[in-house]
Amino acid sequence: MKFLQTLINLIYGFSADTSYRKFNKDTKNAGEINKQVLQEILRLNAATTYGQSYKFYGLHPEDYKKQVPLTYYQDYEGFIDEIAAGKENVLTSDPIIYFGLSSGTTGKQKRIPVTSRSRKIVTMAMMLLQEGLLRQALPSARKGGRGLLLMNMLQSSNSSAGIPTGSGTSGGVQSMRKVLPYFWTTPMEVLALPDQKEANYLHLLFALKDRDLAYIMAPFASGVVQLLGVLEERYQELVEDIKIGSISSKLNLAPEIRADLENQVAPDPQRARELEWAYQKGMVHIVPRIWPKLSHVSCVAGGSFSVYEPKLKFYTGQLPIYSAVYGATESLIGLSPRVNEPTYVLVPRAGYFEFIKAEEIDAVNPATLNLNEVKVGETYEIVITNYAGFYRYRLGDIVKVVDFYNESPVVEFLYRKGQLLNIAGEKTSEEAVRLAMTQTMETLKQRIVDFTITLDLSSAVGKYAFYLEVESDGVKSEELSRLCDTLETKLYAANPRYRAGVESHRIAPCVVHLVRSGTFDRLRQELVKRGASLNQVKIPRAIQDARLIELLESNRLKG
Q1: CA neighbor of 114 nearest in space, from 127, 125, 123, 103
Q2: What is the torsion angle, in degrees rounded to the nearest 10, for the CA atoms of residue 144, residue 317, residue 400 and residue 101?
Q3: Cα dihedral 238, 241, 242, 247 sign
Q4: What single string gives the DSSP state of each residue in 170-188?
Q5: Where in the chain is the domain with CATH 3.30.300.30?
Q6: What is the pLDDT of residues 74-120, one digit of tens each?
């Protein structure tokens, strides 16, 4: 096993470096490569129902913009219903092999078509190109080794024609099941467990057994914080399981799964002693003590996820954070070329990209720019054409171009278009709310677990209502009052139009409601019930859904 592991690491490293060199070459001619991608997509799908409707055959890239309209998900729902029922050659000539479910955090859940070709593009980018970029940015990652992968493979259901559906990531992980033991410590059985807390315990158990763990990987920082929260709560229990080679009887596992997993847990009293020693200094910076060879934590930690960064750093200390991937169920968009910086270089071969200037987003038929026409410092909405049947699709993501990597733009995600707060024309973005809360957190003595915001329109003049969970329920009224005042001041700075609205009495001053411990876990569970993936679920920073607001209200701390 050890020789084979070393051989796989060498082959993987060579393949990752090769992928990086090809990507580097592509980005030196990103605009032309991206047009070639569009031409290939049009050629492949010219004979489809959609392609015939818009005369894809022989269509030039510039004519494509004139002939094919900008689209939203609702433009595809009828076609997707047909595909789900078994009809072929509708949106793509390639068969639809899977429906990825959107995370369900902004409106109705969507079924996103996936083909073998589109899945391969994402898998190769996330397995090889991501590793190649990381090896350039963080030389210590070159040593290789297995990591802890926080992912699941839950399949929700099948369509009437038998097409499987599940989270956007689970299908890709399924396709790698044969090589999984050589890259990650978690057994396959754990990835299919429906209870995230029980899965987290087992993720930790098998990772803790490996003193040479190389990295921790998860979609989002919130997932890593939840994982390490389980480590803090059940540390002694985990150590005891490792010492005697068992799996806690408190876990509700099917007998056959328990038996299979227990066969993989041999007693290791020496490792248990190492873990007991690491715990003597408490949970502060525990991660590098229990895994001294860990090179980094890979998860999206910027944007709305920055609220989790203080707690993440509490556990991980100065370990580099690699916000590896920017993507959606619909498409891979970019990969990060740097550690500790959540910015992403667009991958020219992932799909065809267009950009709508921020000031034209609300226009009836806005003009678009190509990948090589955007400017540093400007803000845009991303439009994608992918290999799985979405054409000129308005993703709703608003990004800022912060740099260029050769000729490919480097972007920072700002917010989702549908998550603007707007009472009186102030249009406060998710980014402005995040910035205000991050700055306010620095003045608060207690750590924030999570937060969200709603529009309170119960009075004649509406206001922003923040729901805040802190690590302790005990916040004095005068401290809460100061918190509210500070938050209001930071909102003024983040969005001057909000300040103008408050000062002109068109918007009432914001309010802060504290909620009980565990409220945001309950909110996540509600989102999972709606179809969000266990480890992909995101807490929306702006909530308008009445049932979610009711959940928050029912958990408010009075006084």
Answers
A1: 123
A2: 60
A3: negative
A4: HHHHHTTTTTHHHHBSS-H
A5: 420-554
A6: 999 999 999 999 999 999 999 999 998 775 544 567 899 999 999 99
Beta-strand (E) ranges in 72-143? Answer: 96-101, 111-115
Q: Rounded to an integer, what distance in angstroms lies between the CA atom of residue 229 and that of residue 240?
A: 18
Which pTM value belongs to this model? 0.82
98 beta partners: 114
By residue count, the chain amounts to: 559
Largest CA distance in the chain: 71
C-alpha distance from residue 474 to each of 47, 477, 480 (Å): 64, 9, 10
N- to C-terminal Cα distance for the chain? 60
SS3 at position 168:
coil
Q: Residue for token digits 């958990």?
A: 555
Residue 298 CA: distances (Å) to CA of 214, 217, 218, 302, 341: 11, 5, 6, 12, 12
pLDDT at 245 over 70: yes
E-assigned strand segments in 319-392: 321-322, 325-327, 332-335, 344-346, 352-357, 369-370, 379-385
pLDDT in tens, 194-244: 788 889 999 999 999 999 999 999 988 888 988 999 999 999 999 999 999
What is the number of alpha carbons within 13 Å of residue 307 lying toward its C-beta? 25
Asked whether the predicted pLDDT for residue 464 surpasses 60, the reply is yes
Written as one letter, the residue type at 510 is C
Would you identify the CATH topology of the domain 420-554?
A: GMP Synthetase; Chain A, domain 3 (3.30.300)
